Amino acid sequence: MTYLVRFFLWIIITSVSVAQSAASLFNHQSFTLANGLKVFILPNHLSPLIHVGLYYKVGTADDAPEEHGLSHFLEHMMFKGTEMIPRGMLDTLLLQQGVAYNAHTTPDYTCYEATFAKNQLELILFLEADRMTHLNFTRADIESERKVVFEERAMRLDNHPFGKVIEIYLRSLYWKHPYGIPAIGYPENIAHYSFESVRKHYETYYTPNNAILIIAGDTNSATVKPLVEKYFGPIPFKKVPERLRPKEPSHEGTVIRIEHTDARNHAIVLQYSYHAPSAVSEGKRHALPLILLTQILSGNELSRLWQKFVNQEKIAVNIDFSYDPWSIDPETLDIIMTLNEGVTKKYAEKRLEEEIQLLLKKGVTPEELAHAKRDILASLAFIKDGLESTVQMFSRVVFGVPEEDIEHFDQRIEAVTLEQVNEAIHDVFDKKPEVILTLLPKGYDLSKEDTPPLAQSLWNALRSIF
Predict the structure, then answer these.
(1) Closest listed residue to residue 202, CA positions, set 137, 127, 107
(2) Is the separation of the CB atoms in 443 and 332 below 8 Å?
(3) pLDDT of residue 220
(4) pLDDT band, residue 17 (cuts 50/70/90)
(5) Beta strands 256-262; 435-441: pairing state
(6) SS3 24
(7) C-alpha 107 chain-centroid distance
(8) Average pLDDT over residues 4-15
(9) Within the chain, how many helices (H) and strands (E) appear?
(10) Which DSSP string corresponds to 181-250?
(11) pLDDT at 381
(12) Phi-psi region of 283 (alpha: psi -120 to 50; beta: other; left: phi over 0)
């Protein structure tokens, strides 16, 4: 890249950062109905489309112990029909109107989403309000959908090359907390769901005061509010049980090592997992600094550890520091490396732990922090190109993140200091990882790792000289 091109690229990114800092990201509008339904409107007039996300504040972590995955199972039942929309007609109606729709369940929420032409807004709001209170399913529906969910679990976990180890890994990370349970539940849970338990779950949690409606696209509050009041306003408020989750005990002094081999795996994958705070849990002050830290260490091909491990030392074909602070309770910061052929697990662990100690000792530099801020702000400049991504970002309100913090996320990133990033480094890495997971090709012999390959020996010699 020539100096002139670099100069103009710097001007573009700098102007983007300044423009973002001077205004709100979404300029959202909001209101709350008398029954407790919270509504957020994110105007975006780039195209005559709208994306709606209806989030219920119930997920797998809220399911009863004997019925883990019930929230996900109810998600399936929500497409069966209502008293007004006969069974099978919901799909037909949405497809006839060109609506793209989906749903998903996480540990913390269940979401129903749709993208459609702006003139279909009233239809979508009617359908969502209708199935919030008039869902109609039978005992036969329970049995037929049970088979579907068993097949889904087989596809995602039971027949997946890493399905077994994913479940072992989750339970190793969370001894008590329900984040250690897959969203789809276990086979014994799926077999246990009854018509009565699914109905009770629906009647308990599917209520306007336990939901958040987010609408992004070519509309505004003046259009949305009368429609929301018309269709959701008559639905009564219902008291929802308090969220009571077991607190994860300290893992201090314990490192769990998991090794998993599979014939379908052809490379060594190494993963270190550390518990890290969420944006709303204890220690939340570290969340934004940790976002910047992951960008510094592995955010792109110019990042610190990508340069060292991938480009220079050829230890890995990729390296990723993965951290998502958007959850109610603390989750993890994960370091994931896929090793180059001939590189041993033992050597990769040694080098990774050396870099972690260097990070603890010297921290990050002002230049690294400035570049990470620039990269994150540049990515935010394009967030509104997609309505779905806009709603996904704003959906952080579901976890309890203040709407103004989301609206001014760019300014909050800009305000993070070097001292805060270095403090967050110590909060996470002053302790050992909770879990070290290694995925191995079938037949790989770990006993041969005592002697490093010639390429590693040469690199060690060069490092000692320079």
Answers:
(1) 137
(2) no
(3) 96
(4) very low
(5) parallel
(6) coil
(7) 10
(8) 37
(9) 18, 11
(10) S-TT--HHHHHH--HHHHHHHHHHH-SGGGEEEEEEES--HHHHHHHHHHHHTTSPP--------PPPPP
(11) 82
(12) left
Please give the Cα distance from 305 to 315 (Å, whole number).
Answer: 11
Phi and psi at residue 212, to the nearest 5° = -130, 130
- What are the pLDDT digits (tens) for 327-344? 999 999 999 999 999 999
End-to-end CA distance of the chain: 28
Residue type, 209: N
Radius of gyration of the chain (CA): 25
Of 52, 109, 290, 80, nearest in space to 195 by CA: 80
Q: What is the DSSP pairing of strand 38-43 with strand 211-217?
A: parallel
Question: What domains can be seen in the chain, in order of their start residue?
Answer: 29-232 (3.30.830.10), 256-465 (3.30.830.10)
- The residue assigned the tokens 């102007």 is 15
- Can you tell me the distance from the alpha carbon of 107 to that of 112, in angstroms, rounded to the nearest whole number? 15
DSSP class of 340: P
